[in-house]
């Protein structure tokens, strides 16, 4: 049995850790940045607040320049003009009156508002859209079913030698999730070290004792073979869990709080984070949540639209964040922490018949902390130009731009880390992090490199081989390189091992290697630098395409189709493939397994039951070598 499968089947036996009465999970492993001359960003932290259920962005941030249209669209739930808080006259934006504490943070220079965030073709399912936000995906076919989380990939790239292995110097978990019994997808890595500590029913002082009793005494007579390897691995996981338990208990007991928090679920989570940080925790990313914003009916009190369900949720958010920031400030650690909110989607611009709002598209995000530049990014959407007369449609920023801005400007991640996290480098949003706190590019990616890598390139030559070249300016305590290759940019295999020029070298060294049997189609290459202690880090990822040698022709006809469609394939060899019909929103309607034979192939598919619209036909060989996507229109 694979290790990751063993953990998948066994991890459900335990419950979530309880700390200060809050369910908590520790994720991955510890972290302390040590970038040369970049000490200002060593201990920075990101706190993510998930507004579960789809927050109504239009009653959260009100367009003051379109109040007449706003009131007409929301006859029963629009906030009265006198209740709206004028946040920023220049941008014509107001806040729900329940957000008064956030308005004071804005006026103190501690809040940034980002308008119109989301992703194209928003998925209307709570579960799927949340999954997309957590995995860093969207509605396109190649990013619709990602199996790891964006935070997990980020941490895995930046601190590969620390995943799953707490050390004396780095004893803290990389991530901590609070107040959710289910492990969040956001922390899942691409490696086998993906499980979180999952214990329940303990307080801080009893945490360590309960963890130590989970598995009993370690086995000393471990058998040789695969079974023995699995036993050794599970014992390692348990040992690391014990270390995490001891560390979390230690920092919690050493920490304190200096402010009084409201008696709410969100405040309890944030209060715990402040205490952990004050006790010395170096955890990098925290995730908390606030439910439920699914306001389909009776969103507010009739006749008093500034009160009710939605108002109560926003009050819990605003008061919790303000108390958290004030606590961090009093503890002297506010300069370390940046907090950001997100929700799986916004809600429709027009109210429904139940005095509520239905699932929508874009919505605002808030970023808080001493390190932000107070201001507003983006403008109000045009309420007179709605999609289908109901939905906001003018997305200004992809949510991955927000996260990329924070990862690079606040946490100091280079383009390689952003590519590993989101498969591409998204354009950053200016003026979110204030200039005094933006991490200098000289600090990007210097935390763990055993070598000073000048460049790493991968290029196709004659559509037959891939040349691999890299240069180092210095190598210290260095052992060797490994070139890793992947079909999908997620799962990698070792292609070559290359010895370094020496344990210590301060001269310029250039390396040349070849992949003489590259994959057909897209391939991804990365360079793994490994030092003498076994710690390692990765270069930026390089993508290379080798055109298919055996696939001569792929067509779909008729296009537009009415009742059926044909997929025509001409190939130089036999292969097995899946042919899928996928909606423009990324939903797979049908998948057919077919054997493609050498020569001409024609496959007919019934599309009569599919609605008119735009679709994709996806052809993928079962070995992953062939990947083709063709547009298909169904028209009646």
Structural features, described:
With 636 residues, the protein is of the alpha+beta class. The chain folds into three domains: 3-441, no CATH class; 449-546, Immunoglobulin-like (Sandwich), CATH 2.60.40; 551-634, Immunoglobulin-like (Sandwich), CATH 2.60.40.1930. 22% of the residues lie in helices and 29% in strands. The protein has twelve helices and 28 strands. It has helices at 3-10, 57-60, 67-73, 100-107, 126-135, 150-158, 204-212, 226-254, 265-278, 309-331, 399-410, 415-422; strands at 17-19, 22-27, 45-51, 61-63, 85-88, 93-95, 111-118, 175-178, 285-290, 337-342, 363-368, 375-377, 397-398, 451-461, 465-475, 478-486, 492-499, 509-515, 521-531, 536-538, 542-546, 551-557, 564-571, 575-583, 588-596, 599-606, 613-621, 627-634. The strands form six sheets. Strands 1, 2, 3, 7, 8, 9, 10, 11, 12 and 13 form a ten-stranded mixed sheet that branches. Strands 16, 17, 19, 20 and 21 form a five-stranded antiparallel sheet that branches. Helix 6 runs antiparallel to helix 12. The longest helix has 29 residues, at 226-254. Residues 1-15, 28-37 and 194-237 have low confidence and may be disordered.
């Amino acid at each position: 049995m694979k290790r990751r499968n063993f953990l998948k089947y066994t991890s459900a036996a335990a419950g979530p850790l309880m700390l200060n009465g809050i369910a908590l999970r520790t994720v991955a492993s510890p972290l302390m940045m040590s970038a040369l001359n970049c000490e200002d960003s060593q201990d920075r932290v990101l706190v993510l607040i998930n507004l579960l259920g789809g927050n109504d962005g239009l009653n959260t941030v009100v367009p003051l320049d379109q109040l007449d249209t706003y009131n007409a669209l929301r006859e029963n739930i629009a906030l009265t003009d006198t209740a709206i808080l004028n946040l920023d006259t220049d941008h014509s934006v107001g806040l729900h009156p329940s957000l008064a504490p956030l308005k004071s943070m804005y006026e103190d220079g501690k809040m940034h508002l980002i308008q119109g965030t989301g992703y194209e073709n928003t998925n209307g399912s709570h579960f799927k859209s949340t999954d997309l936000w957590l995995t860093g995906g969207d509605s396109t076919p190649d990013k619709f079913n990602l199996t790891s989380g964006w935070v997990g990939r980020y941490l895995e790239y930046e601190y590969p030698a620390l995943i799953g292995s707490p050390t004396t110097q780095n004893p803290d978990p990389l991530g901590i999730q609070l107040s959710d019994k289910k492990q969040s997808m956001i922390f899942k890595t691409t490696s086998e070290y993906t499980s979180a500590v999952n214990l329940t029913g303990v307080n801080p002082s009893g945490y360590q004792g309960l963890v130590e009793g989970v598995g009993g005494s370690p086995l000393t007579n471990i058998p040789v073979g695969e079974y023995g390897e699995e036993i050794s691995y599970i014992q390692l996981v348990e040992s690391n869990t014990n270390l995490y338990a001891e560390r979390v208990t230690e920092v919690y007991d050493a920490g304190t709080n200096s402010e009084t928090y409201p008696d709410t679920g969100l405040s309890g989570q944030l209060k715990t984070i402040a205490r952990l940080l004050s006790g010395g925790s170096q955890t990098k990313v925290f995730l908390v949540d606030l439910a439920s914003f699914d306001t389909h009916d009776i969103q507010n009190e009739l006749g008093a639209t500034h009160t009710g369900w939605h108002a109560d949720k926003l009050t819990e958010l605003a008061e919790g964040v303000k108390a958290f920031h004030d606590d961090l400030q009093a503890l002297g650690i506010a300069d370390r922490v940046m907090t950001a909110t997100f929700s799986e989607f916004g809600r429709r611009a027009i109210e429904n018949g139940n005095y509520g709002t239905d699932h929508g598209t874009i919505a605002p995000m808030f970023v808080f902390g001493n390190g932000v530049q107070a201001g507003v990014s983006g403008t109000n959407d045009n309420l007179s130009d709605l999609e289908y007369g109901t939905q906001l449609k003018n997305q200004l920023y992809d949510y991955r731009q927000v996260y990329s801005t924070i990862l690079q400007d606040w946490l100091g991640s280079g383009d390689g880390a952003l590519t590993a996290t989101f498969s591409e480098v998204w354009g950053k949003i200016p003026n979110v992090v204030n200039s005094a706190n933006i991490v200098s590019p000289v600090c990007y990616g210097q935390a763990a490199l055993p070598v000073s890598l000048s460049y790493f390139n991968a290029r196709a030559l004659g559509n037959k081989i891939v040349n691999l070249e890299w240069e180092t300016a210095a190598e210290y305590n260095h052992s060797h390189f490994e070139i890793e290759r992947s079909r999908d940019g997620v799962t990698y295999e070792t292609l070559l091992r290359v010895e370094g020029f020496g344990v210590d070298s301060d001269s310029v060294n250039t390396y040349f290697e070849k992949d003489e049997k590259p994959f057909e189609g897209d391939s991804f290459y990365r360079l793994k630098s490994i030092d003498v202690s076994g710690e390692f880090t990765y270069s930026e990822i390089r993508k290379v395409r080798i055109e298919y040698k055996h696939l001569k022709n792929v067509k779909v006809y008729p296009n537009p189709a009415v009742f059926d469609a044909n997929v025509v394939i001409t190939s130089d060899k036999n292969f097995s493939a899946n042919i899928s019909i996928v909606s423009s929103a990324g939903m797979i309607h049908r998948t057919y397994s077919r054997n493609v034979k050498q020569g001409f192939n024609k496959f007919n598919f019934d599309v009569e039951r599919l609605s008119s619209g735009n679709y994709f036909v996806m052809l993928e060989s079962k070995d992953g070598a062939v990947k083709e996507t063709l547009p298909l229109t169904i028209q009646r």
